């Protein structure tokens, strides 16, 4: 069969060797099957990922490591529960909690602190499940992901700083609300931050160069896919490395802060945990405001 009159939108048969699929130009795409089968991103605005943008994405993870809302908030909250509760071996409210069981009136009845923690975590999970079912698709589609990330980040900031106002055991209900909201803010920000890295990798200069070679027939799809996979793995692994190194510095500073405020009384312990939560928000805000602005404003990622 003579290929001399083949449409220009297909590459030549010779270049199709090596498992390379025919690549159509944008005008030839007229059905969803073609769109999803293409190895190349062929719709939407494409902007090359810059080095500054990649490092902004890395450093954001130092702030959004969960130090406050995920790691220390639960300690601050459970500390309030134990200080507000009583020992169930004695009449209600007469003997403070010791090393054994500890009860409190919560969710309509008297419950152990362990039961309260389990119920609260279940409620937090349920809220997150409903929320992500509604808006989870925006992590991969559309242009509002950076704005959603910002909203979750601001929520986590506000909750972390609000712990400074919850240092009295009588405010354990407020602590419960802050704990739930903090988890939602942290998990939401982390989810939408994580969803950015495939787009960042796809628009790296070397990946876009490989796409052009694939379109010209100078490389095959297997080689292109391997390069794309390695780029994604590199971004993910370096982000974990940067976060770990950053956290070493953050925790070293935190140790000095705690040394200055802690002593043997329970009130000091409560205050210290509140300071830790607020401190984590300060680190997060600095990493976002001064280093990651370029990433948050590039809404194509």
Write the layout of secondary structure elements.
Blueprint: H1 32-37, H2 51-63, H3 67-84, E1 103-106, E2 109-112, H4 113-135, H5 145-162, H6 172-194, H7 197-202, H8 205-216, H9 221-261, H10 266-291, H11 293-297
Antiparallel strand pairs: 1-2
What does this structure look like?
- The protein is 63% helix and 3% strand.
- The protein is mainly alpha-helical and 301 residues long.
- Strand 1 (103-106) and strand 2 (109-112) form a beta hairpin.
- It is elongated, with a radius of gyration of 26 Å.
- The two termini are 44 Å apart.
Share of residues in strands = under 5%
CATH topology, by name, is: Growth Hormone, Chain: A
Rg from Cα: 26 Å
| Count of DSSP-assigned helices | 11
Give the averaged pLDDT, no decimals: 80
CATH class: Mainly Alpha
The global form is elongated
Strand order of the largest sheet: 1-2
| Class from helix and strand fractions | mainly alpha
Report the major sheet: 2 strands, antiparallel
Name the helicity range.
55-70%
Q: Please tally the β strands and state the result.
A: 2
Topology order in helix (H) and strand (E) letters: HHHEEHHHHHHHH
Report how far the terminal alpha carbons are from each other: 44 Å
């Amino acid at each position: 069969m003579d290929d001399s009159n083949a449409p220009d939108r297909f590459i030549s048969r010779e270049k199709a060797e090596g498992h390379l699929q025919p690549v159509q130009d944008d005008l030839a795409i007229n059905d969803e099957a073609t769109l999803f089968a293409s190895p190349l991103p062929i719709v939407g605005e494409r902007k090359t990922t810059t080095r500054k943008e990649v490092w902004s994405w890395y450093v954001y993870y130092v702030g959004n490591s969960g130090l406050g809302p995920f790691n220390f908030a639960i300690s601050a909250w459970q500390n309030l529960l134990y200080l507000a509760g009583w020992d169930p071996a004695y009449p209600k409210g007469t003997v403070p909690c010791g090393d054994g069981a500890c009860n409190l009136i919560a969710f309509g009845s008297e419950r152990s602190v362990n039961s309260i923690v389990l119920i609260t975590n279940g409620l937090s999970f349920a809220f997150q499940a409903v929320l992500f079912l509604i808006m989870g698709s925006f992590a991969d589609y559309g242009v509002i992901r950076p704005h959603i990330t910002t909203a979750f980040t601001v929520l986590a900031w506000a909750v972390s700083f609000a712990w400074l106002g919850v240092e009295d055991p009588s405010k354990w209900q407020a602590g419960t609300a802050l704990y739930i909201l903090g988890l939602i803010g942290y998990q939401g920000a982390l989810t939408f931050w994580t969803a950015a890295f495939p787009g960042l990798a796809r628009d790296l200069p070397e990946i876009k160069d490989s796409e052009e070679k694939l379109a010209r027939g100078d490389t095959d799809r297997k080689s292109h896919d391997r390069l794309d996979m390695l780029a994604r793995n590199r971004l993910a692994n370096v982000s974990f490395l940067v976060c770990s190194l950053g956290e070493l510095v953050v925790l070293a500073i935190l140790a000095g802060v705690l040394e200055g405020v802690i002593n043997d009384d329970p009130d000091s312990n409560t205050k210290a945990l509140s300071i830790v939560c607020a401190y984590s928000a300060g680190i997060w805000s600095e990493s976002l405001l001064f280093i990651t602005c370029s990433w948050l404003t590039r809404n194509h990622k």
